[in-house]
Structure formats: structure tokens, C-alpha cells
């Protein structure tokens, strides 16, 4: 018995050491990135920064946040996330719910399901999609960033499997009471699959917030860039600056420290949102990934 307890404790120690090492391997690069963003140009360029800032300065953040276009792009990203989340969630729910029914209940379910799988495996391609967006006169609008990806098939499948996991007896009881399909969806299915809804909500928010390539394709005016696209093309330029004070201040900034500040600023909103949805994340993935 004593030997068994010793072996169990050794195993626990090994597991915790492994978990701690894995956590540190994820955390230390992030801490280093934050330290670089607060360090001056010379220290960052000489790779002297570890987990603490060297010659601390806020110059990179001042340059990033003092630009009026930064705040305009930030609000465009917020608008995109809000509108994109509403469009995605409505269309995903309305697509996943009927597909979760059997072919006996929903005539043609297999045909539509095959079309969904085909669309997931084979996209129309970048050029045809651009031509469609252009013909619809959506270029340089927020909708050009939302509508091409309005129905994420992977999230639809997660929701569909979550709907299928709901006991059929609940729907049968609601049908006996005379409830419509809209009422059944709103009062029975959606509350039960809340963890999966929270999971696909997180996926949608992260997808819209982090995307920068879409704006490079569909947005021609820099003033209409969302935040991620704007900070991708932002760099330190000193050629046209003659003010000695500004030159001295920008001497503390390099593209390396500015890029670190970009990543910190653009990641911060997601870090604030994630803790509120973390409790739903694992259960939502498990429920939505199991087909019964």
C-alpha cells in the first residue's frame, strides 16, 4: 500500500512538472513580447530583452495610440465583430437546426447535407469570390468582410451535432402541447446547447477580429481598414520628420518594438472576452463534436 502511494505521488509530480513546463512554454513567449513592446529600440535590436523590459518606454504605444486612424480602424473592427457575429449566429442556427433533423422529418436533408459538406471541402476560390463581391457593389464596405464568410460550415456542423444530442422526447412533448418549430427552437434547443453556442460565438469573434487578409482584398481605401489590416501595414517612418523632439522620441521605437506593441494591443480584447466563455468552451466542443 505504501509503495503504491509513493508511485502515485511520483506520477502526480511528473504530470504537474510536464503541465507546468508546457504552460511556461506558452506563457514565456507572450511575456517576452510584452517586455519587448515596453523596451527601447537599442535593447530590442540587440536582443537584450528577456521577460523584463530594458530601458522601459511607452514610445511604441504612444505612436500606435496617438494615430487617429488607429482608433478609426479599431471601431471598424468592433463594428465588423458585432455585425458579423449577428449574421453568422442567425444563419448558423437556421442552417444547423433543420439539418439536425432526420430525412423523415426534413425532406431532402441528405441532399442539403451533401451540399454543405461539398461547400466545406471545395470553396469557390479567391478570384470568383472577389468578382461576386465586386458585382454586388460591396467593395470598400463592411459587408464585403462579413458576407463572404456568413455561414462557417465547421461551426454549423458543431451546432448540428449539438442539436442532435438533445433528447427527442422534449420536442415530442412540445409538439403535443402545440408548440411551433420556432418556439421549440427558442425555448428548448437553444438553452440546452448554450455551451456550443458560446463556443461558436468565441470562434466567430476571434475569426472576425484576427482577419486582416479580407480587407487587403476587398477594401481599397486605407481609411476603411479594420484594425488588424491597419497595424499590419503600420511601420516606423522617419524620413519626413524634421522636429528634433519627434526624432528623439522615434529613436526609441523600431519596427520590432512597434510590432510587439501591435500584437499586444490587438490581442488584449480577446484576452478580456475569453475568461467569460472559458467555462463553456470544453463542454461545447465535446457536445458539438459527437455524432449520435
UniProtKB/TrEMBL annotation:
It is a multi-pass membrane protein. One of its GO terms (biological process) is transmembrane transport. This is ABC transporter permease. Pfam families: BPD_transp_1 (PF00528). CDD domains: TM_PBP2. Residues 70-274 form the ABC transmembrane type-1 domain. One of its GO terms (cellular component) is plasma membrane. Keywords: Cell membrane, Membrane, Transmembrane, Transmembrane helix, Transport. It is found in: Cell membrane. Its main location: membrane. The chain crosses the membrane at residues 12-38, 81-99, 111-130, 142-163, 184-206. The keyword NADP does not apply. Belongs to the binding-protein-dependent transport system permease family. The keyword Transport applies.
